[in-house]
Specification:
By secondary structure, this protein is mostly helical. It contains 19 helices and twelve strands.
C-alpha cells in the first residue's frame, strides 16, 4: 500500500448533496489534507435511471461552496464499467468467482423451501462448484466465492473490531446477466484503482464492507483502512429528514451561514478535540484524526450552528467575507451590490460583523448601506422623529458642516448639541438612527456616519431635519 494517504468522497448524483454527505466529504478532506495526502472525488452514477447531470452539478457546487478542493478530475463510475467487468472475469480465471445460471424463479423456490424448513434463506448456488462442461448456453451472473466457514473481521477505526460470521454472507453477484457490474464490485475496483488507502464513510455501509472485502481477497489486493462514521440525527434523536429543517447543503448557503462556520460545525458533529468548539481550518487540519470520531449518532443543533457561524463571521478577514456575502446574495436570489454599496460594505464590515450569526442578520445591520435617499423609515424609528427632535437634527447639521470627520470629533459635536438641550445623548441617537438608516436598531450612529462619509450623512440628516 502506498505511503501517501488517499481518501475519496463517492456520492450518488440522484439529488442534492445531503448535509451528512457533506460531513463525510469534510472528514475525508481533513484526514487527507492534514497529512499531505490526496482527496479524490468519484461520482457513483451507475444508477442511470436516477442519476442526473443537475445532481452532479449540485454536488460539485456544494463542495466548492464548502471549500473542499479535490485532486484531479471527478471520476465517473459508469464510465468504468468495462474495467469492472474485466475484474469479474479475472476472478473467474482465478477460481475466486463462478458463473451462476440459476434463474430468479429457481432462487425464489430455494428461499421458499428454506423458509418452510426453518433454514437460512441466503441463496446457495448449485453452480458454485459445477464442472464447466455442464454449463448451459444461457445467461449467467458472476458470483464471488465467499468463504463458508469461519468469520470475516473488519478492523474499523471508529467501530472497533467488527466480526461477521461467513455463514451470514452470500456469494454476492459481481456481474449481472447483461454483463453490467454491480455497485458492490464497482466500488472495490474503483477504490483499488484510485489507490484509496482509507475508506471513511457512513456506518450504513458497514455490512457492505464485509462483502467488499471478499473482492479484495479474491484479487489479492490490499484492504484499505475502514472508518465507518455514525449518521447525523435530528434534534429529536431520529434520522435526519426534511421535517427537521434543511438537509441539503445548498440550503445552508441560501440561509446565509458562512462556509468556515459550516466546516467548523460539521467537523464537531460527531468528532471532538477536547472541549474545543470554535476552531480555524488550520487547527482542524492539524487536529483531525479518526480516533476522535464517536460511535453514537450526532445530533444537528441549529442553535449551536448559528453560534459557531457568528464567531466565524466576527473573526473573518473583511476581504474574505465580502465575496462570500456576494455569493450569498446570488444564491438566495437577492439583488447584487452596486459598486458604491460594495465600497461602503467593505468600509463598514468592521461594525457589521459582531453579533451577526448569518449573512441575513449582517445585511439587516447593513441597511444603512443598502438604502438610498430618500430613506424609507420604519414605523418604530419614525416615532423618534417628533418636531423637537427634527429641530435638534437641524441644529446638529449646521454644527457638523464644519466638523472634521473623525469619530472623536463627531462624538464631541453630538454630545455638545445634546447637552445644550439638556438631554442625554441617547435621546439624540434615536432620531439620528432614523435619519441615517430608517431603522430603530442599527450599528453605532458614529460608525454609520464614518462609513457613509460627510456628504451622504449630512444629506440624510438634513432630509429629516425641521
Amino acid at each position: 500500500m502506498s505511503d501517501q494517504i488517499v481518501t475519496r468522497f463517492a456520492p450518488s448524483p440522484t439529488g442534492y448533496l445531503h448535509i451528512g454527505g457533506a460531513r463525510t466529504a469534510l472528514f475525508n478532506w481533513l484526514y487527507a489534507r492534514g497529512r499531505g495526502g490526496k482527496f479524490l472525488l468519484r461520482i457513483e452514477d451507475t444508477d442511470r435511471a436516477r442519476s442526473t447531470p443537475e445532481a452532479t452539478a449540485a454536488i460539485l457546487k456544494g463542495l466548492e461552496w464548502l471549500g473542499l478542493d479535490y485532486d484531479g478530475e471527478p471520476m465517473s463510475q459508469f464510465a468504468r464499467a468495462d474495467r469492472h467487468a474485466e475484474v469479474a472475469h479475472e476472478m473467474l480465471a482465478r477460481g475466486a468467482a463462478y458463473k451462476c445460471f440459476s434463474t430468479q424463479d429457481e432462487i425464489e423456490a430455494f428461499r421458499e423451501a428454506a423458509r418452510a424448513e426453518g433454514r437460512s434463506t441466503l441463496f446457495q448456488s448449485p453452480w458454485r462448484d459445477a464442472d464447466p462442461s455442464t454449463h448451459p448456453d444461457t445467461p449467467y451472473v458472476v458470483r464471488v466465492k465467499a468463504p463458508r466457514e469461519g468469520a470475516t473481521v473488519i478492523r474499523d477505526e471508529v467501530q472497533g473490531e467488527v466480526t461477521i460470521r461467513n455463514d451470514q454472507l452470500d456469494d454476492m453477484v459481481c456481474l449481472r446477466s447483461d454483463g453490467t457490474p454491480t455497485y458492490m464490485l464497482a466500488v472495490v475496483v474503483d477504490d483499488h484503482d484510485m489507490g484509496v488507502t482509507h475508506v471513511i464513510r457512513g456506518d450504513d455501509h458497514l455490512t457492505n464492507a464485509a462483502r467488499q472485502v471478499q473482492v479484495y481477497n479474491a484479487m489479492g489486493w490490499d484492504v484499505p483502512v475502514f472508518a465507518h462514521i455514525p449518521l447525523i440525527h435530528g434534534p429529536d434523536g431520529k434520522k435526519l429528514s426534511k421535517r427537521h429543517g434543511a438537509v441539503g447543503l445548498e440550503e445552508y448557503q441560501v440561509m446565509g451561514y458562512p462556509a468556515a462556520g459550516m466546516r467548523n460545525y460539521l467537523c464537531r458533529l460527531g468528532w471532538s478535540h477536547g472541549d474545543d468548539e470554535f476552531f480555524t481550518d488550520a487547527q482542524a487540519l492539524e487536529w483531525f484524526d479518526l480516533k476522535g470520531i464517536g460511535r453514537s449518532p450526532a445530533r444537528l443543533d441549529f442553535k449551536k450552528l448559528a453560534n459557531i457561524c457568528g464567531q466565524h463571521i466576527a473573526a473573518a478577514e473583511d476581504a474574505a467575507l465580502l465575496p462570500e456575502i456576494e455569493a450569498f446574495l446570488e444564491a438566495s436570489g437577492r439583488p447584487a451590490l452596486t459598486q458604491n454599496q460594495r465600497a461602503l460594505m467593505e468600509a463598514g464590515l468592521f461594525c457589521l460583523k459582531d453579533r451577526a450569526k448569518t449573512f441575513p442578520e449582517l445585511l439587516e445591520k447593513a441597511e444603512f448601506i443598502l438604502a438610498s435617499r430618500p430613506i424609507d423609515i420604519e414605523e418604530k424609528a419614525a416615532k423618534a422623529l417628533d418636531p423637537v427632535s427634527r429641530g435638534i437634527l437641524n441644529e446638529l447639521t449646521a454644527k457638523l458642516q464644519s466638523a472634521s470627520w473623525t469619530r472623536d470629533e463627531l462624538e464631541a459635536v453630538a454630545t455638545s448639541v445634546a447637552e445644550a438641550h439638556e438631554i442625554g445623548f441617547g435621546k439624540l441617537a434615536g432620531p439620528l438612527r432614523a435619519a441615517l438608516a430608517g431603522r430603530a436598531a442599527t450599528p453605532s450612529v458614529f460608525d454609520m456616519m464614518l462609513v457613509l462619509g460627510r456628504e451622504e450623512s449630512l444629506a440624510r440628516i438634513q432630509d429629516q431635519a425641521a
